[in-house]
From TrEMBL:
The UniProt record lists the keyword Ion transport: yes
Name this protein carries in UniProt: Trk system potassium uptake protein TrkA
GO CC, alphabetical: plasma membrane
Native organism: Hallella mizrahii
Domain RCK N-terminal, residue spans: 1-121
PANTHER family reported for this sequence: POTASSIUM CHANNEL PROTEIN 2-RELATED-RELATED (PTHR43833), TRK SYSTEM POTASSIUM UPTAKE PROTEIN TRKA (PTHR43833:SF5)
InterPro entries named in the record: K_uptake_TrkA, NAD(P)-bd_dom_sf, RCK_C, RCK_C_sf, RCK_N, Trk_Ktr_HKT_K-transport
Keywords noted in UniProt: Ion transport, NAD, Potassium, Potassium transport, Transport
Domain RCK C-terminal: 141-223, 366-446
Record bears the keyword Transmembrane helix: no
Length: 446
């Protein structure tokens, strides 16, 4: 597959890293030679210095032969313009990153689709969705729903109170048990577990289950004492905070701390009483105390500074807040935040790249998510008739090492998968993989 990426910034660089694992033919266009030099030495790809809004540059990059053209510069107009031009040159599919919610309105999305922009990616909206999913369950690091909760994946940090530690998974996750452990992050190691693997204290374990058994999972991992989130404090009033508040469940009460008084006025107009906006610096412990930090169940730090977000969440944890969420754009800082036990880590470039990554797959893929903490991918595949995955029971498929099938949805009903499960065409199958070429997995479903 030939892929052209316009913009060697954060998302483009991360996306190049993600796609280079699959040995695709990748060309990165940027008008800054230094950015191109950095990305060119790190990954196996071609670079081209120039503007993707130039027809000459696009022709030089052979955009007409591109299977996927991705525009992820900081300039919305440049991204849309370059996608329109690439489409006119007969690129097969185009994707543009945008930073304005107006573009996501259905009629406007359709307008740009008719112009040749097949997909619009709005990182703030994607990040807000992940934040809300994290806040809905204070005892869970990450939640991922399949078919409106027919299947649920829960990423949970295990503590001493977990009652299923130090036992082989084959004793815990049999065909009749209501959950499977599909991935484990242990210190710097990611494990796609087998029957002889065990859960250890401080593991980050990923459980696949169905909605009715969520209370049971909560009990066996020892998290029943975690209170549900009703009061939320958000540090930083940027675009991601606005999107998160606008999609917040009605039962959650939210306070936003913003140091810029002019931005506070803008927030009051944008949010229309959906949150209490406070002009103050929440790094001041006195301010947090006055505003009720000890009666707050969740603290979300969304400033543009990763160090500030990490330190703020550490401080909130020391003041008794169970659920903390930090926006951390640096991958190096993300690893550090995980080791410090910060809580849920939000990385917009990884979230956006996961969504774009889904678009390059040929199989019928409903969703792809990169599990940042575990350095693993989870995807929903729909098998085609007579595809390899439908011909034998799961245990006889010869799945590659580092891949496991966590569950499936059939006729709207979630089911866990065992070795004897026979997958059918049209099932929605949830796959976990670590260090496996997604194209290799895709062949099982085509």
């Amino acid at each position: 597959m030939k892929i052209i990426i316009s913009g060697a910034y954060a998302i483009g660089t991360y996306l190049a890293r993600l796609l280079s694992r699959n040995q695709e033919e990748i060309t990165v266009i940027d008008d800054d030679e230094e950015r191109l030099a950095r990305i060119g030495t790190d990954y196996d790809l071609l670079t081209l210095c120039g503007s993707a809004s130039s027809v000459k540059t696009l022709r030089e990059a052979n955009a007409g032969d591109a299977d996927l053209f991705i525009a992820v510069t900081p300039d919305d107009n440049a991204n849309i313009n370059s996608c329109v031009l690439a489409h006119a040159l007969h690129a097969r599919k185009t994707v543009a990153k945008i930073d304005d919610s107006e573009y996501m309105e259905p009629d406007i999305r359709q307008f740009y689709k008719e112009l040749g922009v097949d997909e619009l990616i709005y990182p703030e909206m994607l990040a807000a969705r992940d934040i809300i999913n994290g806040l809905r369950m204070s005892w869970v690091r990450q939640r991922w729903d399949v078919h409106n909760g027919a299947l649920v994946m829960l990423g949970i940090k295990l503590r001493e109170s977990c009652e299923i530690l130090n036992r082989p998974l084959k004793e815990l996750c049999g065909p009749d048990d209501p959950y499977h452990v599909v991935a484990i992050k242990r210190k710097d190691e990611t494990i796609i577990p087998g029957g002889n693997d065990e859960l250890k204290c401080y593991d980050l374990a990923y459980f696949m289950t169905t909605k009715q058994y969520i209370p049971y999972i909560r009990k066996i991992v020892g998290k029943e004492h975690y209170v549900d989130v009703k009061n939320v404090m958000i540090m930083g009033g940027g675009a991601t905070a606005v999107r998160a508040v606008q999609t917040m469940p009605e039962y959650m009460n939210t306070k936003i701390f913003e140091v810029d008084p002019d931005r506070c006025d803008e927030l009051n107009q944008l949010l229309n009483d959906q949150a209490l906006v406070i002009n103050a610096d929440p790094r001041d412990m006195g301010v947090l105390t006055d505003e009720g930090i000890y009666n707050t169940q969740a603290f979300v730090s969304l400033t543009g500074n990763a160090e500030t977000n990490i330190l703020a969440c550490l401080a909130a944890k020391r003041m008794g807040v169970r659920k903390t969420v930090a926006m951390v754009e640096s991958m190096g800082y993300a690893s550090m935040a995980e080791s410090l036990d910060i809580g849920t880590i939000i990385n917009k470039k990884a979230i956006a790249a996961s969504r774009i990554y889904q678009l390059m797959l040929d199989a019928d893929v409903m969703n792809v998510t990169f599990l940042l903490s575990a350095n693993a991918d989870v995807a929903e595949f729909i098998p085609k008739p007579d595809s390899k995955v439908t011909r034998k029971a799961v245990k006889d498929l010869g799945l590659p090492q580092g891949m496991t099938i966590g569950g499936l949805v059939r006729d709207g009903e979630g089911m866990l998968v065992s070795g004897n499960t026979q997958i059918q065409a049209g099932d929605d199958v949830v796959v976990f993989c670590h260090n496996v070429n997604m194209k290799k997995i895709e062949k099982f479903f085509n």
